[in-house]
Amino acid sequence: MKPVNTEAPGSAAAPVDDDALRRFVEDVGMFMESTGVPRSAGRLVGWLLVCDPPEQSAQQLAEALGASSGGVSTNVRLLAQVGLVERVGLPDDRRTHYRIKRDAWSTSIADHLRLATAMRGFADEGLGLLAAADPSRRERLRQAQDYFAFMERELPALGRRYDEDRRSREGEAPPAPSDP
């Protein structure tokens, strides 16, 4: 990663240690790689979490990360698909810019719920297929079914609690109740 000026022009903020930022970006990349995400995509997330301004063009991303424009393009597409990054336009700039999506983290709860629902469905199907099989053969499916059924029950409440907490911290009014 190349040294970069992390403050927007005219910013009165104190300078940020480039070495510390590089370590942060690399740490995020390494962690995300351990979860199955390409390290370069993780580095991009790390940079978008700390850069100023928060909206960066592909050229700015490539320069800041020492990455190729093709690599940046591939990774922003991947991150947009999973809902972490969004494309934005800026006034008086024809280039596309990217930033961390505002609700990126809370939407991951909905993603986990979809995963839990699908996996519980597969466990149900597998148990049906092995209905007459020895119980020891069915045990792995039963454990998966129990876990994913639990997650299906708990994740919606977790998402609601997070939204309530976020609204409270940000001074935002709760949503209007919906009609029954």
TrEMBL record:
Pfam families recorded: MarR_2
Annotated InterPro entries: HTH-GbsR_regulator, HTH_MarR-typ, WH-like_DNA-bd_sf, WH_DNA-bd_sf
Basic and acidic residues biased stretches: 159-172
Region Disordered, residue ranges: 159-180
Gene Ontology MF term list: DNA binding; DNA-binding transcription factor activity
The UniProt record lists the keyword Transcription regulation: yes
Keywords: DNA-binding, Transcription, Transcription regulation
Keyword Zinc-finger: no
Domain HTH marR-type, residue spans: 36-95
PANTHER family: HTH-TYPE TRANSCRIPTIONAL REGULATOR MJ1563-RELATED, HTH-TYPE TRANSCRIPTIONAL REGULATOR MMPR5
Protein name as annotated: MarR family protein
